[in-house]
Specification:
The complex is a heterodimer of chains A (110) and B (413). With 110 residues, chain A is mostly beta strands. In chain A, 0% of the residues lie in helices and 48% in strands. The model of chain B has no long low-confidence stretch (mean pLDDT 96). Classes of the chains: A mainly beta (110), B alpha/beta (413). The structure holds flavin-adenine dinucleotide and FE2/S2 (inorganic) cluster (FES).
């Protein structure tokens, strides 16, 4: 089974717990997968404020909150929902093929 | 028909930034002008005692957005311009040195200013306060030459400056009249934990003591405590609290009382005049009392709430106030309603430290503080938001899953 072009395989869909945040790496890039209400989201794993790993963060109402100073990022768009971060979090596209979650190498534009 | 309504935002802090962004996001399409006494676009003031002071960040890195961003939003910046008074009858702001700036709506976000100590010797060079970027630049410069730093006051600013100065390898002494630092906002239990952290990092604490005077020839060289102890120093940093910046409204007719009085929509008694951030003393309908909060998150959110009200979409502003403080590699976060509590419940390891503290009043969780335990902050906050009553033994029990607890409380609502 080959990955869709520009995508990398991360994990089986079934292995990701509901409400879970799973860290993974693409090359040296830290990222996270989130499963919420069955939907999968992929985002950068490092807060855009200072250095904090979002895998240690908290989910609430489709927002992921940074563990250090409470910046919030919309899971779907990466947009900042609460400061101190002012730059959006890069988000990645998802494809699920044969029960495997693939994530785009490059962040979604705009 | 007259032109579109204009809005003037007075102030250049995070409340102003939050408001500027939210005004446009909420569809306000009239002219917007941001007037700030500071010569720089809004920036993250919270770094001034931390990364910026330690030389780990440049000015560019602490700006929320570059000037071009405001241009894109169609917001005129009037930087380095101080308002000296306001005429609410003519609806004009008086700018130094003599210009008049008319407004239809005015959003006041003048923030707060450090309380100055009027003790002997505190007018000597070498005595610093920390609020603005200019203050921080001067302090950073002084710090690079100093060896012995005396910090007067162990509130958040004092504690953070002490931590940064120690991190830079300076000898640091902190004097505070209270027996444990930050006992007011955090209680003695958490205050004692923080005191121990500072001691372990080599800070000399003089708690339960007051400075009587500073002495020196050309600069502050020595502090004399009330009990007689003398402490040699080549730099003094004072952090003894702030007060709302309302001097320009003293005789303007604007209702003032511990800041500017506003309702749950950030509106003052004067039509079209709003206030937000450190300067605003607002009615919180969720808890049925007034609050004035001196922290970043409130300023950002309240600025945005005021902007939505101005844009015609008022929603009651009823947050659970939140703040953080970073000292050394310690991360502290707070979510809750300030005010009296009758019980503090600790969970975790005070020595490490890795602790969560719950503040209860008559059995209700009023606030939560995490020290190096960030994952418990938001579940704790949900308990506060739900005004939950939880058995203290359950809160203290390390095997209690706080997320599940918060979930069950939320569902029971
Ligand atoms: C060193 C430091 C560290 C901090 N660290 C933290 C932290 O870690 N976490 C946290 O939650 N909070 C922290 N705070 C508090 C936080 O920065 C404030 O709560 C926040 O800045 C308040 O924002 P504001 O916009 O209401 O007011 P301010 O940021 O004070 O901004 C007020 C603005 O109004 C301008 N102004 C005032 N009067 C006039 C006038 N007459 N004419 C024109 N302009 C005027 C000022 O120049 C300033 O630009 C810290 C504060 C300081 C000083
Ligand atoms: S590092 Fe994420 S909010 Fe500061």
């Amino acid at each position: 089974m080959t990955a869709p072009k520009g995508y990398v395989a991360v994990k089986r869909y079934d292995e990701i717990p509901e409400g879970g945040i799973v860290p993974f790496r693409v090359d040296d890039d830290e990222r996270i997968l989130v499963k919420l209400e069955g939907e999968i989201y992929a985002l950068s794993g490092i807060c855009t404020h200072e250095y904090a790993e979002l895998a240690e963060g908290e989910l609430e109402d489709h927002v992921i909150y940074c563990p250090l100073h409470g910046s919030g990022f919309d899971l779907k768009t990466g947009k900042v929902t609460s400061l101190p971060a002012t730059e959006p979090l890069p988000v990645y596209d998802i494809q699920i093929v044969d029960g495997v979650v693939y994530v785009s190498r490059e962040p979604r534009q705009g | 028909m007259a032109g579109r309504r204009s809005c003037v935002i007075l102030g250049g802090g995070v409340a102003a930034y939050g408001a500027a962004e939210a005004l446009r996001a909420a569809g306000f399409d009239g002219p917007v002008t941001l007037v700030s006494a500071e010569p720089v676009v809004p920036y993250d003031r919270t770094t001034l005692s931390k990364a910026y002071l330690q030389g780990q960040k440049t000015v560019e890195e602490i700006l929320f957005k570059p000037a071009a961003y405001y241009q894109e939003l169609g917001i005129e910046l009037r930087l380095g311009q101080r308002a000296s008074a306001v005429d609410f009858d003519r609806r004009e702001l008086l700018l130094e040195p003599g210009e008049r700036l008319p407004f239809d709506t005015l959003l006041i976000t003048t923030g707060a200013e450090p309380v100055r100590l009027r003790l002997p010797g505190f007018n000597l060079p070498g005595v610093r306060y920390l609020r603005s970027l200019a203050d921080a630049q001067a302090l950073r410069e002084d710090l690079s030459r100093a060896e012995r730093v005396l910090v007067v006051g162990c509130g958040f600013i004092g504690a953070e400056v002490a931590a940064s100065a120690r991190t830079l390898g300076k000898q640091v002494t902190v004097v505070d009249p209270l027996p444990v630092p930050l006992a007011g906002p955090l209680g003695e239990e958490v205050g004692a934990i923080l005191a121990e952290v500072h001691r372990r990092h080599g800070v000399e604490l003089r708690l339960g003591q007051k400075v009587a005077e500073l002495r020196g020839h050309r600069r502050a060289e020595e502090a004399v405590l009330e009990r007689g102890e003398r402490i040699a120093c080549d730099l003094v940093v004072v952090g003894v609290g702030v007060r709302p910046a309302v001097a320009l409204f003293q005789s303007s007719g604007l209702p003032l009382e511990n800041g500017i009085l506003v309702d749950e929509h950030c509106a003052t008694d004067i039509p079209g005049v709003y206030a937000a951030g450190d300067v605003a003393n607002w009615w919180h309908p969720g808890i049925g009392r007034r609050l004035r909060v001196e922290h970043f998150d409130n300023a950002a959110q309240q600025g945005a709430a005021a902007a939505r009200a101005i844009a015609g979409d008022p929603r009651p502003y009823t947050p659970v106030p939140y703040f953080w403080s970073d000292q050394y590699d310690l991360n502290l976060q707070y979510a809750g309603y300030p005010g009296p509590w009758d019980q503090v419940v600790l969970r975790g390891d005070s020595a490490a430290p890795s602790v969560t503290a719950f503040y209860l009043r008559q059995g209700v969780v009023e606030a939560v503080v995490t020290v190096n335990r960030p994952r418990e902050l938001r579940p704790g906050r949900r308990l506060v938001e739900a005004r939950a009553r939880v058995d203290p033994a359950v809160l203290a029990d390390p095997s209690t899953d706080l997320r599940a607890l918060a979930q069950s409380v939320r569902q029971a609502e």
